[in-house]
Write a structure and sequence with these properties.
The protein is α/β, with parallel strands linked by helices and about 350 residues long. It is built from 13 helices and 15 strands.
Length: about 350
């Protein structure tokens, strides 16, 4: 690694992207910034040995915030931090930091800092490479859309309180998912399908979903849904947004009314994890290039099986176990995390 010049921190622009522009104007292109021994150097010929990758994502991520975090990490026995070039993706700014080492309390330290500064972060030894083929498998309810469809149709049918109480407990991992599904669907016996169509017409997409799908498609990635919800809604999203495949539960119909039963295999936590593996094999995608995104307890198995599990506005039990938890932003943060792994020279 060749050090070009020490970077003096004097008057910093508010925007991290503006700081990048200013440094490149002053120094010309370089590979990264090395934070070490209380100094910052622009470096080339990067052969930095990283033990952990850390991606910061925020709507107003500033140069000062990144410098402050790098300083805190060095004060807590992380010898050096290498910063790739920041990027602006789908309305948010992200930057990938490579850490020379981590300690048992490093992630908690970073989490506290990020929460105090309205930043989301991803931290693990290796991230999927967005320049290579990959697969994203997503939950549907409260992940790709902002509602739980079964709660909405139950509310319109007049059994909303009974159903939503069971849904909440199931998503928190307090109930067996299959049994909870059967008991909720039984309350929908006799419901006209017009109610399903009404919910489809008003499904609010999760912010950032369309940016995420567009970014994945542009990069040649596959994006699919595995949902404990219903095919009626998943297929509507597939037609509207272009998901490659969707998997969900099938409601039995008798004419234009529901029977209160579910047909076939229930898409539960184990099935979601199995689908992830089957899709990766079908598309010829390495396991290291798989991402799973969800919010409920029934998403944990597929998230743990993937190379990168992302919890989005998730239940507490999920945030405790997920590799990455997005709370400040929305699905654009997932795109930013992946985009941060591509070519990152300061230029």
């Amino acid at each position: 690694m060749k050090q070009l010049q020490e970077v003096k921190v004097t008057q910093l622009p508010e925007s991290l992207i503006q700081w990048k522009t200013l440094l490149v104007e002053q120094l010309g292109p370089f590979d990264g910034l090395l934070f070490q021994n209380k100094t910052i150097h622009a470096v080339t010929d990067n052969d930095y040995q990283s033990q952990q990758e850390l991606v910061l994502i925020g709507k107003h991520l500033s140069a000062g915030t990144v410098i402050q975090l790098a300083s805190i990490l060095q004060q807590n026995n992380i010898d050096s931090v290498f910063a790739a070039a920041p990027k602006h993706v789908a309305g948010v700014t992200c930057i990938r930091l490579s850490l020379s080492q981590v300690h048992s309390d490093s992630k908690a330290l970073i989490a506290d800092f990020c929460q105090a500064n309205d930043i989301d972060f991803a931290m693990q030894a290796q991230l999927p490479d967005f320049s290579q083929p990959g697969l994203v498998l997503m939950d549907m309810d409260s992940t790709t859309i902002q509602i739980e469809c079964i709660d909405e149709i139950a509310r319109l049918y007049g059994v909303g309180e009974q159903v939503s109480a069971v849904t909440a407990r199931a998503m928190n991992g307090e109930l067996d998912f299959n049994e909870s599904l059967y008991s909720r669907v039984a309350l929908l016996d006799g419901m006209p399908t017009d109610i399903l169509n009404k919910v489809i017409a008003e499904m609010p997409l999760m912010p950032g979903l369309q940016d995420l799908i567009a970014g994945l498609k542009a990069a040649g990635w596959k994006v699919c849904i595995a949902s404990g919800g219903f095919t009626y809604f998943a297929q509507a999203l597939q037609q509207q947004l272009g998901f490659d495949q969707v998997f969900a539960n099938t409601l039995e119909l008798n004419g234009d009314k529901l029977t209160g039963k579910v047909l076939g295999e229930v898409v539960d936590a184990s099935v979601k994890a199995r689908i992830l593996g089957e899709l990766a094999e079908q598309y010829g995608i390495d396991a290291s290039q798989t991402v799973a995104i969800g919010d409920g307890a029934n998403d944990l198995k597929m998230m743990q099986k993937s190379a990168l599990g992302i919890a989005i506005h998730a239940k507490p039990i999920v945030q405790q176990q997920a590799a990455v938890s997005i709370n400040q932003l929305d699905l654009e943060a997932a795109l930013a995390i992946l985009t941060s792994t591509t070519a990152s020279q300061w230029a």
